[in-house]
Amino acid sequence: MSTELLVTMGMVASRLGGVMMLIPAFGARGVPKMVKVICVIAMTLVIGPTLPPVDVSPTFAHLLVGVMTEVIVGVLMGGVVSFIFGSLSLANEVMSNQIGHGAAQLFDPMLKVSHGPLATLGTFLAALIFLGTNLHLVLFINVADSFHAVPPGGVASPIGGGVVWIEIAREVLEAGIGLAGPVLVLIFLIHVFVAVLTRLAPNMNIFFSLGMVMTMLAGCWMLMVMLPYQFEMHHQMVSTAVERAPDVLRFMDLVQ
Length: 256
Known about the structure:
Blueprint: H1 3-22, H2 33-47, H3 60-99, E1 106-108, E2 113-115, H4 117-132, H5 135-149, E3 155-157, H6 162-200, H7 206-244, E4 253-254
Antiparallel strand pairs: 1-2, 3-4
Helix pairs in contact: 1-2, 1-3, 3-4, 3-6, 3-7, 4-7, 5-7, 6-7
């Protein structure tokens, strides 16, 4: 096996490893590291021999820069999907706090942070939809195609790809608030109703005796009604993000 082929395989594995660190489900803390390593090695053995060898000097400095660059490229590509994937978790976190579940924090292995029970449940269900609809396979295919569009070692500076993350962050905030909107409106109307009752009967502790119960029951009911719509919209957004993942390469400085 030639040195150029080994360098090419190493850079392919670096980009794939960067993607694997952030994509949903595979990047979760509960997934064994050996599974991620085996997936990266398997895809490298399939993709690497189909690419032209990297024409670089096999010095330590060149290899280090090339590997770091490819890892950053992979992280930027995987982050596009990971950010969008967090929109449902953001929506459910907002709803959990409004319904009254904010005090019950659970660790979310998908995003590696603590969330309310609704946000954690939503993340698990979204991960099952991501895997069940084979979006992870579509993402791997798009990443494999990116090696033919921009070969390993073809990126001079990957920093420009971060521009896509700014646009994605805006979409995540809009989607998170939009998905939680119906529950927020319902909770607001309940608070207005409880405020009117409190004004009419100031000596009664209506908020704690009636308001919290109505908020939790109505919020859980609205969430149950909204779940199919939430997952459908979330699936469409993630599908679009999977197709947009290779677009970060267009904003990077390529080797001429």
